[in-house]
Every structure is written in structure tokens, then in C-alpha cells.
Amino acid sequence: MNKERKPVPTSVEMMIVFLVIFFTTFQGSFGVANQPHKQAKSKAANGFGSSLIFPVTGDVYPKGYYHVTLNIGRPPKPYFLDIDTGSDLTWLQCDAPCTKCTPAPHTLYKPNKELVKCNDPLCASLHWPENMPCESPNDQCDYDVQYADYGSSMGVLVRDTFPLRFTNGSVLGPHLTFGCGYNQEVPDSIHLPYTDGVLGLANGKSSIVSQLHELGLTRNILGHCLSTKGGGFLFIGDDDLIPSSEVIWIPMLHNPSEKRYMLGPARLLYGRQATRVKGLPVVFDTGSTYSYFNSDAYKATLSTIENYLNVNQLKDAAEDQSLPVCWKGTKPFKSIRDVKNYFKPLILNFTNAKNLQLQLPPEAYLIITEHGNACLGILNGTEVGLRNLNILGDISLQDKMVIYDNEKQQIGWVTANCDIIPKSSLSPSLSVPSLQRPPATRGSQKEDL
Ligand SMILES: *[C@@H]1O[C@H](CO)[C@@H](O)[C@H](O)[C@H]1NC(C)=O
Ligand SMILES: *[C@@H]1O[C@H](CO)[C@@H](O)[C@H](O)[C@H]1NC(C)=O
Ligand SMILES: *[C@@H]1O[C@H](CO)[C@@H](O)[C@H](O)[C@H]1NC(C)=O
């Protein structure tokens, strides 16, 4: 079919894609005195025996993001952080004071006096491959992180305590490094992620996972299970949770300029039918709500799906502006179950790994909008400036346990029921004494200023 495609609506242009494109460095002024940081917990003597499990809140549609609640500081206060396997730096909107902060669920984080110095390895890793951003090694470490959706956060690296309950029952308060963001740019969207910041989970040194590993607290492994019903869980550390069989493991692709979780090359199939798309590298990025294919793969996907659509059952729904491509039935769809039979799974065959497959059933690439239409949750990445990158966002990672093993340098997945949070899970937010107080009121940012 050769149809006129409607232009990408604002809500899509503005979708949050937490994909770091680059860091720039600058020397800003920041009113917190320097103070040497305290050394965090020493390495656990008997290796790693424990992990962290965080319940996840959110959904692909209508919210558009998944977040965890972390407690930070002394006394600890809760913050909602968007989980992002596509970037390293964790940051919080911060009262430093804040030049430009966006509405957030909790009061702004107030930094303590622990500034990270410019000669800190984490500062260097954040600015890599550029040179050290500092004139003097004792300077504060400024950061400026830019995301693919033109959002950004600018601030300074700080250290503070994160009270965490490990699955073995121990509660520790490791000092972790993160960004105190006092200048955020967000895409001008009506669907802003309603969070206090971002939890960076990519494989760079500055990511929370690497830091916990460096401190000897957890293994350098993380995983998530995001439910199509909303919610799910995130874990860091031990592989106790990972089923020993059935997981499909594929070695990560290495590209020196890419600090992201990437697999490939993959061949794209629709049901049993191979498309002409092959050699596709794909990035696993929970910071992106939807998936993105490069222009060519996108075109092939769209035309293949449309080729197989029964035009008597499904028609173009150009009037639905939720996403660029939508279909309607004879009556509004209530759930994905109503359309499942009209579509086949999209399949990625990893040709360097014995054709091991990542199967994307219709619910991993379609949403049912509030108007009762089915819309394609795979978007044209070239159109939003991603060039040749292909991204598997939240929508395509749902209802699977996806595991990133940075030690063995492989990514694995297995179909899972993400509604069941593992028993050992104790929300760290329920385990710290200070949280016996009522939670902070929503939108109470102003109280604090
Ligand atoms: C529990 O796990 C943490 C993190 O790995 C470790 O530091 C602690 O010593 C462990 N506690 C016990 C009682 O084994
Ligand atoms: C894709 O993988 C499946 C299962 O591994 C294999 O049977 C099939 O031939 C592959 N198809 C293509 C086009 O590579
Ligand atoms: C994808 O976006 C690019 C860049 O805007 C455009 O040239 C191309 O036609 C688009 N592809 C499809 C199939 O819409």
C-alpha cells in the first residue's frame, strides 16, 4: 500500500528518548563548598551474595515511562527515577539552587557538601572521550548530558548516601555519585515524565550498577521485567533471580564510541516471512518509550505489516494522532487481545548467534489508544535524528526478563510474568526508618524554595 503518512504529531516529536548523544563540558559556578568525600564501604569479603530488587511503576501507554523509587540522602528522602539502560549518569533535579527545574513529584534534592572532584575517575569517565574538564584537579565536576529527544540536564557531580536493603537482609548506605541537576531542558511536551530524575543503568563507569560493583556490593549484572499491565521490577546484582535454563543469551556488540547495550547484526522477520532487512544492530534502551528503526528498516517493517493486514478488518485511522501509524477496526478495540490475531510477531534473528531469536509479539510493538485504535509503537528513527540507530524501547522489552550481564558481556531474555515481583523483594523505600513518615506530597516543589 502506498499511503500518505500523517506528519509525526507533537506528542511523538517530544517523546522522551533518554539516549545520550554527547557530553559537553564547561566550568560553571556552583554554590556548594568543596569537601573531601568520605570513602564508601569497602569491598565485601566473601564476594557477592546479594542483590537489590526495586518495584517499578509506570507503563508504555498512556504514561510513557517506568520509574523506581529510590531513597537518597540523610535523612533519606524518596525520589522517582526514570529507569534508563541507554545512559550512564543518574541525576536528580537539585536545589543548588535550581536555575531551571521542571515540575516533579517530590521536593528538590538538597545537596550535602560532598562534591565530586574533577580528578575523580567517575568525572573523567563521564567526559570521555574528551579531556578532563578541569583546570585544577580540585575543581568541582560539572556535567551536561544531552538526550536524543533534545532534553538535557546540566549540573555538578555530588556524592550522597543511598540507603539500600539487599536481598540478604542487610541495609547499607553506600555513597554513590550522581548528578545534581540545576538546569534541565525538557522537550515541550504535554506528556512529561513525572519524575525527579533519571536512573542511569548503562555500562559506563559512572552508572549506578558499575558503582555498586566497584564497591564490592553487587555483581555487575542488572535486569528488568516490565509488564504490559504496567509496573514490574528492576534488579541489580546476583543472578539468583535468573532462570538457569531457557534464557537466550547473545554476546554484546562492542563499539568503542558506544557505551550502550547493543546486539546484532539481526535479520528482521514478520512471522515466518523474512523481510529484506538484515545487518541490523539494536540498542536496548528503557529510556525510550517506543522502539525506533532506521528509515530503511522502518519502511520495510511498515510495508510488510501492511501487506499482511486484512483490509476488511483493519483500516487506516489517520484521525488518531496518538502515533504516526494507526489502524481501526469495525468497532473500537478494548485491548491488544482484540487485535492480536490480525498481526504476526516481529522477529529478530541474530545471525552471528546461530539465529537465536528475539520475538516481538504484537503487544511488543502495538498500543491500543484511548480512541480504541491500534497504533504502531515502532517509529522512524531517522525522522527524529537517530540516523542509523535502532532502538528497542520499553514497548518491545515488556513481559520479558531482560538481563544485562556486564561480566560475561552478554544480554539475555526470557518470557516472564512481570506482575509477580520476586519474594525476596523488599522495597528499599519501605525499609528505611525515615520513610515511616508520610510520603512527600505531590507537586510540593515550591514549599522548599
Ligand atoms: C549482604 O550483602 C551485602 C552486599 O553484598 C554485603 O555487604 C553484606 O555483608 C551481606 N550481609 C550478610 C549478613 O551476609
Ligand atoms: C531465523 O531463525 C530461525 C530459528 O533459529 C531459523 O529457522 C530461520 O531459518 C532463520 N531465518 C532467516 C531468514 O535467517
Ligand atoms: C523516515 O524519515 C526520513 C527522514 O525524515 C524520511 O526521509 C523517510 O521517508 C521516512 N521513512 C518513512 C517510511 O516514512
UniProtKB/TrEMBL annotation:
Region (Disordered): 428-449
Active site (catalytic residues): D84, D285
PROSITE patterns registered for this protein in UniProt: PEPTIDASE_A1
Keyword set, alphabetical order: Aspartyl protease, Hydrolase, Protease, Repeat, Signal
Keyword Signal: yes
GO BP of this protein: proteolysis
SUPFAM superfamilies: Acid proteases
Example of a GO MF term: aspartic-type endopeptidase activity
Feature: compositional bias, Low complexity: 428-439
Annotated signal peptide: none
Superkingdom, natural source: Eukaryota
Domain Peptidase A1 residue range list: 66-414
One Pfam family named in its UniProt record: TAXi_C
Entry coiled-coil feature ranges: none
Membership in a protein family: Belongs to the peptidase A1 family.
Name of the protein in its database record: Aspartic proteinase Asp1
